[in-house]
């Protein structure tokens, strides 16, 4: 049991995950499914949101007070596959702002390389929803969290479709305060870092680049 994992094993999500795993699922269907799953991941990640304000409105029948989210989170995509999740998260939380981190693991230097980093100016203290559909070794995820924390952001929640046992152990070691929301935990990885059974390379399947 991983104390920082929130596993969403809802039948509807597992149904969609089955189509994401299927190699015959076309790219446009794959993108739509990732968007749908991302909406529900965002929904769960916001379940414990406390920063609300009461606003007075007029219904068609009578005046009343309603709750409104204030100081909304920042949805941050790890390029490029994380972009596939961003539309779903922002459609569920339209008042959220967005950021982007371009980072990858270079097998020759055995380290992560950052090539792009852009966050909203007011990110300090804001909750982060960090999006990457697959977490295998967790190298890029750990590096991304390190960078975000250097900007003194608020709590960080990771939204992912699949993660590995290995990744969860490393995240709990390096960033025990970060919660991970995912549909399933994969027990195995290939020597090239692909999750087994996984769903292949999410970026390639989203954008038909292979």
From TrEMBL:
Gene Ontology biological process terms, A to Z: uracil salvage
Record SUPFAM superfamilies: PRTase-like
Key word Nucleotidyltransferase present: no
GO molecular function list: GTP binding; uracil phosphoribosyltransferase activity
Record-annotated Phosphoribosyltransferase domain positions: 9-209
Keywords linked to the UniProt accession: Allosteric enzyme, Glycosyltransferase, GTP-binding, Nucleotide-binding, Transferase
InterPro entries: PRTase-like (IPR029057), PRTase_dom (IPR000836), UPRT (IPR005765), UPRTase/APRTase (IPR050054)
Pathway given in the UniProt record: Pyrimidine metabolism; UMP biosynthesis via salvage pathway; UMP from uracil: step 1/1
Sections of the chain in a coiled coil: none
Pfam families: UPRTase (PF14681)
E.C. number(s) listed in UniProt: 2.4.2.9
Cofactor: Mg(2+)
Highest taxon, organism lineage: Bacteria
Family: Belongs to the UPRTase family.
NCBIfam families according to UniProt: PRK00129.1, upp
Protein name, as recorded: Uracil phosphoribosyltransferase
Source species taxonomy: Bacteria, Pseudomonadati, Bdellovibrionota, Bacteriovoracia, Bacteriovoracales
């Amino acid at each position: 049991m991983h104390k920082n994992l929130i596993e969403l094993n809802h039948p509807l999500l597992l149904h969609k995950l089955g189509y994401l795993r299927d190699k015959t699922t076309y790219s446009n269907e794959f993108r739509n499914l990732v968007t749908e799953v991302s909406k529900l991941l965002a929904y769960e990640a916001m379940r414990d949101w406390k920063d609300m304000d009461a606003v007075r409105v007029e219904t068609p029948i009578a005046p009343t007070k309603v709750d409104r989210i204030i100081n909304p989170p920042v949805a941050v995509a790890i390029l490029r596959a994380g972009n596939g999740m961003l539309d779903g998260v922002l459609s569920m939380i339209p008042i959220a702002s967005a950021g982007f981190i371009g980072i990858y693991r270079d097998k020759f230097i055995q380290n992560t390389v950052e090539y792009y980093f852009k966050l909203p100016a007011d990110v300090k203290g804001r909750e982060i929803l960090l999006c990457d559909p697959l977490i295998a070794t967790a190298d890029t995820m750990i590096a991304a969290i390190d960078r975000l924390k250097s900007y003194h952001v608020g709590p960080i929640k990771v939204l992912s479709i699949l993660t590995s046992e290995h990744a969860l152990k490393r995240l709990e070691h390096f960033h025990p305060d970060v919660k991970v929301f995912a549909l399933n935990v994969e027990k195995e990885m290939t020597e090239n870092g692909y999750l087994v059974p996984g769903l292949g390379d999410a970026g390639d399947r989203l954008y038909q680049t292979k």
